[in-house]
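Hello, quick one for you while I still have it in my head. A protein chain has come my way and I'm curious about its shape. Can you walk me through what the tokens say about the fold? No rush at all, and the record is pasted right below.
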Amino acid sequence: MSKLDDLLSEHCSDGVEYKALGELGEFYGGLTGKTKEDFTDGNAKFITYMNVFSNLAVNTDISAMVKVGATERQNTVQLGDVLFTGSSETPNECGMASVLTTQANEPLYLNSFCFGFRLYDISLLLPGFSKYLFRSEALRKQIVRTASGVTRFNVSKEKMKKVQIPLPPIPVQREIIEILDTFTELTAELTAELTAELTAHKEQYNYYRNLLLTFPKSEVDS
């Protein structure tokens, strides 16, 4: 048996508990009351739609800025929060999740086209586990079913409250994180190697293409 099998047998021999998101935490919205001018010469960082859509873990190297007044009441994103895209042109791209896995040293805000989810008890899920969990096939199937529309599809927060997630013990979560992080790193390394190889082949192709299509000029034409 693998280490993960041993941990599952030790900590949850009777199976893993599942609970609805609505029982475990609350949803919150992104920025409100902002105009186009508020995104010029901003004083605070905000997480864009594409940051959420494209990343398992929020990319905290943020350049997107917005003006936020000292007395404004805006939601800030906290460590462990799960962020979701609110809408898309296809249901399969709705509710894409990204997790803030590192502690921010300054307030981070969320764009108005996304929404967040925060656990009442943040110790239930490790952020590193959540980033994989909410992009898993089983969770994606549930989340996609919360979207409705015709030309554009929108996620229903009420339906999102009914999405069921597993709550494996923390030692199990840690082992899963280690396995998937290692696999992700190896995949990235292989992708980089393949990209370099493809670039070399492309340069070689361009060289021979130019060589083969460059002909000496006929003296008759001179």
Residues 71 and 218 are 79 Å apart (CA to CA). Residues 1-12+169-213 form one domain.
